[in-house]
Structure prediction request, 229 residues.
Amino acid sequence: SQTIHQWPATLVQPVGSPLSLECTVEGTSNPNLYWYRQAAGRGLQLLFYSVGIGQISSEVPQNLSASRPQDRQFILSSKKLLLSDSGFYLCAWSSNRTPLTEAFFGQGTRLTVV
Amino acid sequence: AQSVTQPDIHITVSEGASLELRCNYSYGATPYLFWYVQSPGQGLQLLLKYFSGDTLVQGIKGFEAEFKRSQSSFNLRKPSVHWSDAAEYFCAVGMFSGGYNKLIFGAGTRLAVHP
Prediction:
């Protein structure tokens, strides 16, 4: 069966520090991968998606970047965190088939920038 | 542009009462519609989904949703709410855009259940 792992679960970082959040998927090949951010009262905002190794697309301009060094690994990064980067970050995967039948989510990372 | 609207940010119901959470979408093609639930500090769990066919779909935990194309709506219902249903609920539209599949979410509805 497929599983998705996301870590760390909680992170407190000072302003200006770097960030690296990791997500890995098991039990499937060539998935579509997604990073979402959830801010209070604003639902889930799609930040990045990837359809393959090294293929990253950004949905919104921001202080963050994403990379996919391996087929089932998706990393969210920042060189210098801002206060506004605080939020709950969710990684998700879906089959690369069309249409999208379901997306599966990790348990999330609560990031607090202080 | 594609969008999903959940007009109710917070809803409070008494345990045992019925529940309806509203969802409206804007999408030019045939929508693929989803409802997810999120417990505090957790990821999202799929409640139900609609692709085609019968417009009334059944999901887990006693939830159902009805697709109404004329109203661009996909409202979630439960006849009798349990205290454990307190959570945040998200409606989403799945679409194929720009060469890939993605889910667009509404802002969510936070459900509180009074004993």
